[in-house]
Amino acid sequence: MKALARTAGLDYTKNQESPKMKNKQSLRLHQAQRQQAFSPARSRFVETLTKNRQELAVELRSLIAANPFLHTVSDEVLFAQAQSEFDLRADLLNQLHTGRWRFRLDVAEYIIEALDDHGFYDPAQPAPGFQPEEIAAALRGVQQLEPFGIGCRDSLDYIRRQLGLRNERMALRILDEGAEELSRGQISTLCRKLRLTETELQDQLTVIRSCQLFPCQLGPVENAYVQADVRLTLEDGEFSITPLSPQVLLDIPAGPLSPQLKQYLKEAQLTLDLIDQRNLTMQLVFQCLVRRQRDYLLQDAPLAVCRLKEVAEETGLHLSTVSRACAHKYYEFNGRIRPFSDLLCKALHQISRDRIEAQLKRWIAEEDPAVPLDDEQLALRFQNEGVVLSRRRIADVRKRLNISNSYQRKNMKKEL
């Protein structure tokens, strides 16, 4: 055996790369993805990209145990820390109130509160006081919020939306026209019905299985330790990015191989190719996030407007690929581990939510202690600057910043 032929996990440095280098990386990634289009390998890539570092490590342990050509080196837990609590329902309400919509916001608020623990909503459930057309319009709006798939009816509806986004027409047709045959295990009947070979059908079923079952977790979860997927460091004023994937080595044997060993070797090489593509995709996306949020990272300035769509346009990647590269991924910087999503920020009249929070804190810091500003007055100030926020939304932002209401602030000043 010839050891250490390849190592999974690339070491990318110098975030501030030239456009030429960035284009080369994008071209390499797109070529690899194009070669995998509509194939089981493409589905494997999507599945690998979706996994964070811990989930990838679990899968690799199983692969290494079964494959004689793969082995690992020590993968330490770097800067492990308890995962911070994240109120996704509050984030959905925040997205709702930082945009312009043509539906009733109170109906959308009701839908968000009625979502189950997996982010699903059943339109058949009673909604007293609201008309069906109002529910339908608000539901369409809620389904535009992030994460993708929020507000779907159930897992099957969510899978259909994923397949639609990926333009997997045959997989959708199988779900729509072959559900009965699939439930009964009538594979031959389904093949004749759709005029597919069994191999083609199995390939499409692999595509369907690659879809996620739930868009999110709204219910309480146990605290878990997280590991960074990339490390961000600052050297001489420039950022460096290092993916922290589990380190896996490939041993290439000398001499002829049996057909079975050739298959093991092919699978091992594919595994490392997929990890390389995952790392490159994450690096391209995270580079874009760091470029856009440089002032936030270096100077603690408010977040700049940065949405998934803009990251997709800048990197040349598909929106769903960018979403998977960000979902449940973490970066380590200055000894802290934070999710990629912390660097995303929606716009409100071209103003980021972070800047709204900064403006609110500034106004309250400068207010007359004897006559503090109430939420209605703060909403009016925002309105005078062209930013329409309700009194309730102001109260939500203020509470998130741990700022007391005007009555409490006035009493606190009296006590001092």
Automatic annotation (TrEMBL):
<dbReference type="GO" id="GO:0003677">
    <property type="term" value="F:DNA binding"/>
</dbReference>
<dbReference type="GO" id="GO:0001216">
    <property type="term" value="F:DNA-binding transcription activator activity"/>
</dbReference>
<keyword id="KW-0805">Transcription regulation</keyword>
<dbReference type="InterPro" id="IPR007634">
    <property type="entry name" value="RNA_pol_sigma_54_DNA-bd"/>
</dbReference>
<dbReference type="GO" id="GO:0016987">
    <property type="term" value="F:sigma factor activity"/>
</dbReference>
<dbReference type="GO" id="GO:0000428">
    <property type="term" value="C:DNA-directed RNA polymerase complex"/>
</dbReference>
<keyword id="KW-0240">DNA-directed RNA polymerase</keyword>
<dbReference type="GO" id="GO:0006352">
    <property type="term" value="P:DNA-templated transcription initiation"/>
</dbReference>
<protein>
    <recommendedName>
        <fullName>RNA polymerase sigma-54 factor</fullName>
    </recommendedName>
</protein>
<feature type="domain" description="RNA polymerase sigma factor 54 core-binding">
    <location>
        <begin position="82"/>
        <end position="242"/>
    </location>
</feature>
<keyword id="KW-0808">Transferase</keyword>
<dbReference type="Pfam" id="PF04552">
    <property type="entry name" value="Sigma54_DBD"/>
</dbReference>
<dbReference type="InterPro" id="IPR000394">
    <property type="entry name" value="RNA_pol_sigma_54"/>
</dbReference>
<dbReference type="Pfam" id="PF04963">
    <property type="entry name" value="Sigma54_CBD"/>
</dbReference>
<dbReference type="GO" id="GO:0016779">
    <property type="term" value="F:nucleotidyltransferase activity"/>
</dbReference>
<dbReference type="InterPro" id="IPR038709">
    <property type="entry name" value="RpoN_core-bd_sf"/>
</dbReference>
<comment type="similarity">
    <text>Belongs to the sigma-54 factor family.</text>
</comment>
<dbReference type="InterPro" id="IPR007046">
    <property type="entry name" value="RNA_pol_sigma_54_core-bd"/>
</dbReference>
<keyword id="KW-0548">Nucleotidyltransferase</keyword>
<keyword id="KW-0731">Sigma factor</keyword>
<feature type="domain" description="RNA polymerase sigma factor 54 DNA-binding">
    <location>
        <begin position="261"/>
        <end position="410"/>
    </location>
</feature>
<keyword id="KW-0804">Transcription</keyword>
<keyword id="KW-0238">DNA-binding</keyword>
<feature type="region of interest" description="Disordered">
    <location>
        <begin position="1"/>
        <end position="24"/>
    </location>
</feature>
